[in-house]
Structures
1.
Amino acid sequence: MKTLIVHAHPEPKSLNGSLKDLAVSTLEEAGHEVRVSDLYAMNWKAVVDATDYGPDASDPLRVARDSGRAFDAGTLTADVRDEQEKLLWADTVIFQFPLWWYTMPAILKGWVDRVFTYHFAYGVGEHSDTKYGERYGEGTLAGRRALLSVTIGGLEPHYCARGINGPIEDLLFPIQHGILHYPGLDVLPPFVLYGTDRMTADDYPEAAEAWERRLLALEATEPIPFRRQNSGDYEIPSLHLKEGVEPAGRTGFGLHVRASTTTAPGTPGAR
């Protein structure tokens, strides 16, 4: 298995840094190939601008059109092309980051904004009266898997259905469904560690053991059963979910997840 780890934390000695290092050593010892994009160490440029698209960028700038033109012409900046090549190389992509203000750090969102260009991550496939492009389970990254490894300062009860912060599944839905599943990735249930602001060195071995279990079970873990856009569950071209396909009583983001009886092996209940 070939694994790309995209890591977003400014402190190498942080919990996130330790989890990233543990993932590298665990997977390599198991015989896997591993590459790492350590965004802070790379001094990753987090903002999209005209310099991403070469001297032929339009004026005024049109990000989608210009990114697609530059992708087609091979004139995207070298850092973006390198990350796209890593994604195409990988079988599995692990994203290691802390949850800041209910989402990923800005540098990681900037990686998505710049790397997931038009004609690479979106705007691909047939657009017709019967098919609305290749996305949500299809597309450039189809056949690959993704896993979020997320650290959260707050306590687990704060992130459940009645918790004040809302269910973690809902908070991560825009990332897992909207960013990762959109260009075709199969998304594994996340590895989440809660209460990390209160973690001590004595607590780390238990977290590390849980993370190792998840890593060694990657190939056996069933992905979140997100509905595929072109599977027949949605009306075309409205993309409304057809009546009656959802489990009784399910609402919100959960409408877009098929019923499943499986769970991820080793999924921890602590951050």
2.
Amino acid sequence: MRAIGLMSGTSLDGVDAALIETDGEAIEAFGPSLYRPYSEAERGLLRAALAAGTEITERSDRTGILGEAETLINQSHAETVENLLKMAGVRPSHVDVVGFHGQTVIHKPAIKLTVQLGDGPWLAERLGIAVVHDIRAADIEAGGQGAPVVPVFHRALAGAGKLPEPAAILNIGGVANVTWVGPGGDLNAFDTGPGNALLDDLMRARNGQEFDKDGEIARRGTTDKSVLYALLTSDFFAKKPPKSLDRFHFHEKALTAVAHLSTEDAASTLVDFTAATIALSVQHMKEAPKRWVVAGGGARNLAILAALRERIAVPVSTAEDMGWSIDALEAQAFAYLAVRSLKGLPNTYPSTTGVPTPVSGGVLAGPKSSSGNRMAVR
């Protein structure tokens, strides 16, 4: 099947769209991908929505800034798909499904609450293509963490890349998560701790930059070990999986802890915080990985990569080293998940989100038929 995946992460940099071909098990081909950056005004709107998201108590809440942000998410994602199809020379009728993650504004599995802005039926109608959306909700409702949801895709990648077993595929977005792939496709996955979010927030507060390009500022600094050790005392790191995090989980504590440091030293300390928590995650794995592969925006941060290689004794590669796309990997994952959802195949498992039994998840929306009825909702 031919599928398009969409991703807008908590870094708020933009929309990634990617085309793949898959039967829901093997990845048959990677197609083209496209990135659509958000403007500064759009980022400002989304940051306001993230702030408002902390007050959400009902999943359907789209009042005020949340509704404005959802309109932006809908339109920007539709435009990106349309431009990708044009670039690839593919008609909408030749695409089976779109996997639409939306924009996470709150993720609190302890109270069974996760909200991703984005209107799946609206997008399906605009594109004329079936859309699988709200992919995390079924797992949360069934008692899982709702994250991470991409490990089943990581397993397919590990198989295609013939990685040694066990292997770890690490995604460093706003939050970092790891997938451990063992013999026979055995899976274990969980959020390890902060990813890029703390460093991005520091850069924005200190010098108005969206991120520390290539980790240049962090590489000029020196880590404050006492601050680092204090941050590592959080109960989250000793907690056994399943476990997942909201983007703002460490925000106040970490940024307050580095407030007295220079920007360079604060950045270095936060980079080491991310790397140290990733290294600590090995304690929750059945066996130490023989190889790590890093994806997500953190794979482009040379300071984070260097800090990881100091702490991890086995080879640490990037997705790019494997011939995979660093930037489009999560979008490709949601294309893959959408196909699995269509086929009723599980996307989350007890060993990845803690859900009691495997869950497919996702809600299917389709363009209105000539009778005016929508496709059945799963």
3.
Amino acid sequence: MTAGSLTSLDEAAEDGPVLAGGISLGAHLAAEWAVRNPGRCAGLLLALPAWSGPPSDAPASLAARASADLVDEHGLENALRIATDGVPPWLAAELTRAWRRHGTGLAASLRAASGHPAPTLDELASLDIPVGIAACTDDPVHPVAVAHAWARALPRAVVRETTLEALGADRESLGRATLQSWLQANATAPPGPHS
């Protein structure tokens, strides 16, 4: 899963610099790729980064490991039933879609995600590109403090806050917040090759 995402970004950048992005682990992978390929990335759209550097006991890492254990112990469908019990319908639908997409590889994918290091704050500081970050203030799994730490480390970043409640009502709200923050970072950044 992680290698495939990084390879996809390599392929996308064959025709010129790309605007890379993702949510949670996807945000980590986009930033990781940008650190390794600074001249090939025009900017980053990052939603809900979950940790910096090694995951240690970050809430998202613990949640992914617990979910992998649940799938191993109960099977996919029973694990989904347990995991979605009492959660908002939109989140239950999203979990169901995402988990079923992985099929028999779900537990292994969750474990890979839970242990994959994110870029360190020092690595993020090396990225002189516009970066838009969105965070949900009511999301305990992706602490808003992580998003702000990333923004402080990055030379040209803006954070916009939203909520999971807003995301439930408007499925585009998280993407919109990320794009708006990137546009602001791009507009206020000093002129450069990617402005």
4.
Amino acid sequence: MRRALLPAATALLVLTACGGEATYTGASEESGGSGEGGGSALSCEEPPEAPGDVTTYAQSDLPEPVPADPATLTATLETNCGDIGLELYAADAPQTVASFEFLAQEGYWEDSACHRLTTSGISVLQCGDPTGTGSGNPGYGYGIENAPEDGLYPPGTLAMARTQDPESNGGQFFIVYDDTQLPVEGGGYSIFGRVTSGLEIVEAVAEAGTASGGGDGAPAQPISLLSVNVDG
């Protein structure tokens, strides 16, 4: 089943490949430390080929929640369009951060495409599925943590995608690039961090729109995770 932001979403996205280098211009030149800055000129390298083999894990491989001290960790998403810096909320979402750190160390996301961009109704870029289909998962699942009761997700929010099953959090996550409200029925969506630098990359990808021209689909400007690194 596809990992969706909205429980009603059932369509499967088809990743559209596009090689070469493209440049898109965002709204402003710098991003602030809060992850709420505007966009800048974006230059992307040709995205890598999707992984041929995707590793899956057993439920028993789910790592133990991280300690609450330190309360936050730092991480970097290295993409073909530049680096995106993250702050991870270890104290507020210990299981989610533990899984994110584990998958990063395993190289689970290496060369995987961000397969879904939404530009109508909700404003997110969804990544974390090495298969590029929107239905891939690491083989284990876990529950919701730190979901906002009001369903409000501000720009720069880093949160988990899931199916209708509240225990289906796994490897797919999304970055919010504009104020977004998501359903709270079923428990909402786990917020486990925020963008601290590089939000302008996501904004510029969003400005380029989807490959289909619709409000929900594969990004017209392909963006892939080359590597994910978590620091203390």
